[in-house]
């Protein structure tokens, strides 16, 4: 097993300590291991989702929409979402 040393800002270190104190985790290590595993799963799902989107796009064939129309629609959606 590899050993790592990390530094956290005080507020994050206090948060980790509070999660351990809650009794759900036996140690800061156990808490951080769970966070890393959740992050791995999240990224795996992102990759799978992206593959599915690309597969669907490929299967749908060429678009009849023009690039300027797509850009206009995208800009409108971003404006509507205040981005």
How can the largest sheet be summarized?
none
CA gyration radius, whole angstroms: 22 Å
**What structural class do the secondary elements suggest?**
mainly alpha
User: How many angstroms does the end-to-end distance come to?
Assistant: 43 Å
How many strands in all? 0
**DSSP strand (E) fraction?**
under 5%
Helix content: over 70%
Mean residue pLDDT: 91
Molecular structure report:
- The protein is mostly helical and 83 residues long.
- The protein has 3 helices and no strands.
- It has helices spanning 10-21, 28-60, 67-80.
- The radius of gyration is 22 Å and the shape is elongated.
- It starts with 9 loop residues before the first helix and ends with a helix.
Q: Which features characterize this protein?
A:
0% strand, 83 residues, single chain, mainly alpha
Question: Summed up, what is this model?
Answer:
71% of the residues lie in helices and 0% in strands.
Write the layout of secondary structure elements.
Blueprint: H1 10-21, H2 28-60, H3 67-80
């Amino acid at each position: 097993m590899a050993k790592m040393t990390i530094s956290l800002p005080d507020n994050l270190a206090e948060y980790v300590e509070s999660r351990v104190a809650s009794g759900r985790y036996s140690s800061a290590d156990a808490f951080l291991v769970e966070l890393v595993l959740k992050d791995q799963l999240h990224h795996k799902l992102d990759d799978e989702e992206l593959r599915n989107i690309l597969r669907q796009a490929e299967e749908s064939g060429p678009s009849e929409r023009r690039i300027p129309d797509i850009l206009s629609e995208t800009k409108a959606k971003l404006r509507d979402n205040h981005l």
